[in-house]
Amino acid sequence: MKKNRMIKLSLILMVSLLSISTRAQNKDTVWTLPLCIDQAMQKNISIQEKALSNETNKVYTEQARADLFPSVNASISQNFQWSKHADANDNFGPYTNSNGTSFGINSKVTLYNGFKTQNTIKQSELSYKAGGYDVEALKESISLEVLSAYLQVLYSEELVRNSQKQVESTSEQLTLSEERLKLGSVAKSDYLQVKSELANENLTLANATNQLQLNQLTLMQLMEIPITSKFSIEQPKFDISKDLDTGLDADSIYETALSIKPQIKSAEMNQQISELDISIAKAGYQPSLTMSAGLNTSYQSGLGMAYNNQLQNQIVPTLSLTLSIPIYENRQIRSSIALAKIGTANATLNETNIKNQLRKSIEQADVDYNSAITQYQASIEKFNSAQESYDVAQEKYKQGILNSVDFLIQKTNLITAESALLQSKYNLLFSKKILDFYTGVPLTL
Q1: 213, burial (CB in 10 Å: exposed 0-12, middle 13-18, buried 19+)
Q2: Taking the complete model, does pTM exceed 0.85, yes or no?
Q3: I want to staple 266 with a disulfide (CB 3.0 to 4.6 A). Which of 133, 158, 226, 311 is the partner?
Q4: Which of 92, 103, 127, 423 is nearest to 276 (CA)?
């Protein structure tokens, strides 16, 4: 007993250490974009449900293939009966019992049914492949959500850093203004103006920090990991100037997307599936040929023959061919064909709609990308101009030839321009990644 208790304690300790190690590893992990996407792919419930749903198509495929082979059944029957027998004078005596045993093995296979079985196999295989593409389409959709959330976190982190720098800068200015107030070189209103600006920037920093936490929350929830304050993502080094490629063509991107996007492949396969529905329905007009074979024997008491002797001598092999010719099926076949044709028309419309939606999405992404380029370039010019004006104003303010009101106006202009530049930078990056996504480029930074 003592030995068993020690073993249990050792196992509990090992599990606890592994759990602590795993949690520590998760807290210390610096999440890159590919790691975030992989985590979401593994843990997302919708993806798992979609994959499990597609497994049913696999089962149907295996069942359809098995229908090509004959079915085999064995049977054993034991029966008892009681009856009265008449004598020579037609007098019936008491009930007498008898019993019998029969054994059989039978097999049946469909030789021809208008290729219905073969078309059902093809249909099941296509359904399984289409289901796989549906899973991939869902993964891509969630990957884009992770990308957007990841960039939002990066943007928020940079916004927090900029806000912290502004607070530090204004704190220094407040110290300088306080010294000048003591010397009597500035009015108290100037000092209070700087103090008020510092309060506003502290509020801006608090709001930026809160927004960062909300964006981190969104990303962690997409990744299906527990919320932790230790969560951190990689700060990738990327050259935004490489994304200023205006030579991208929406038509060529669309042609590439048509050949690689899973939703397009799924729609094309669903179109083929619907066409096979018509062939399967038309098979109802064709005759079906089945073959049956069996081997049966039996024993009956009261025949004066031994059990084994009866079984050996009453073996009856059977073989039969059955040709079933449809003559009138109460319009069921015609209705099935009509419904299958309607289904094919719907599948065609659905395929066209999916392709149109893809084209529209790419056209919109192309417009967004070119607009993002223009906005980013304009933001750079505005920021550079605001930076130059701020540098001049800062120098004048240090020399005491510019009051705090005019200086803070220039500083506010710089903060606004810097915020616009930051937003336009990540907007451009996201727009470019969307176009890359449609051409099959992996989502990385």
Answers
A1: middle
A2: no
A3: 133
A4: 127
